Amino acid sequence: MAAEVPGDWCACPTNSAQDCGKSPGKDTPGTRVLGEMDKPLISRHRVDSDGSLAEPPSGAPKVGILGSGDFARSLATRLVGSGFSVVVGSRNPKRTAGLFPSSTQVTFQEEAVRSPGVIFVAVFREHYSSLCGLSDQLAGKILVDVSNPTEQEHLQHRESNAEYLASLFPTCTVVKAFNVISAWTLQAGPRDGNRQVPICSDQPEAKRIISEMVHAMGFMPLDMGSLASAREVEAMPLCLLPAWKVPALLALGLFVCFFAYNFIRDVLQPYVQEGKNKFYKLPVSVVNTTLPCVAYVLLSLVYLPGVLAAALQLQRGTKYRRFPDWLDHWLQHRKQIGLLSFFCATLHALYSFCLPLRRSHRYDLVNLAVKQVLTNKSHIWVEEEVWRMEIYLSLGVLALGTLSLLAVTSLPSIANSLNWREFSFVQSTLGFVALVLSTLHTLTYGWTRAFEESRYKFYLPPTFTLTLLVPCVVILAKGLFLLRCFRLRLAKIRRGWEKDSAVKFMLPNDSILTEKTSHV
């Protein structure tokens, strides 16, 4: 697994992709009656009681905002709290003035753009043309475009919103910024959301000014280059977990395959050959048998690409040749695959706790007790089965606990507090320990069942035997690479040695340290 998990988890009514849309609703003819969405996300009482939102100090830099929607309100709140003097331009300032901090000046658009040197444009793209009447007052000023297109608009228009705004106001300097920050993050502060603010513009001086504003507001500016990059920046909020699509499809495919396999063995075979109706097992029992299979295979797929990469480096005798594209993408998706493995393992643990609560389980216990009475068996105790279950459960708990450490250290806040050696130890060494514990857990579960003829239903082997294939290959390969002949050669390759190079290369005396600090 590699280090990570996104997100603004709060149920905010709007995000940056839609916030701009609330602004023109206030400032264009034919607007709707004031409703729930017109109420500020932060109450007026809270705004006025916050000392940081009081009257700005004299000489505070003045910033203008065109628009009065949710995003404009949140932006004004954050700017005032950061020490800026804010002027908001609205078509109906009397109606919207009460929605902003008391220190904010809400006036008509013509007056709002007169004195500030930086103007935030918080309106929809289709309303940009309505601002053309302000072109004389806006000449020479910096326009910050915070809008986002919808997916359909992004595909429909060949130029970005920022580039379109720049074409309408050629005498202004347009900067694309703050479009990936939600209204909630602006109000709650960067501690509760994403800190990075991508910025792009054709004028370096304008980017410097906006970057300083971003720093003053508590965020981190990220220079994305010229305004031609605005289309890429505007596409960021439209992406829905792009790094998770392939791992999620992989996990879903494994789940479907193992579920179908377990259904054939545990439900269909008894029904066809013995006439027993065991379809009640589908919601819990079959799912609980499938989840550990998926988790176990996914965990092995986290470490298999590292093994393949090491084998390629050994075969090529160099680290300076690119891996195949499929392997490169696989290496980049290890974190997501590992987190999905942890998710499935956690669900397996929860399902296992629910097994004794099922009504079918209670009936089985009653039937077993009745059978014991009828056969005059007063004591049932199989020593081997008792020990097997104790060891099996203990190894499962240890494996899940180790996986939990891997999942926690994948969080950016935790990963950033670790140095490279600590992070590598957790993700590589403890990850391999988790794989070994999971393998022992699986072997203890299977015990001698792989050699019992009755376990082969429809001539299909037990499910656990299939799951052992990939993990055992990974463990054996890892053990092979620990041999001195392979270990030293890998260490030399990862420190720059090449097989066909004429340069002599000597490893440091502490080859063990070399191995610990060199990784694929």
Automatic annotation (TrEMBL):
Residues 62-149 form the Pyrroline-5-carboxylate reductase catalytic N-terminal domain. One of its GO terms (biological process) is iron ion transport. InterPro entries: Fe3_Rdtase_TM_dom, NAD(P)-bd_dom_sf, P5C_Rdtase_cat_N, STEAP_metalloreductase. The lineage of its organism: Eukaryota, Metazoa, Chordata, Craniata, Vertebrata. The keyword Flavoprotein applies. Residues 13-38 are annotated as: Disordered. It is a multi-pass membrane protein. This is STEAP3 metalloreductase. It comes from Cavia porcellus.
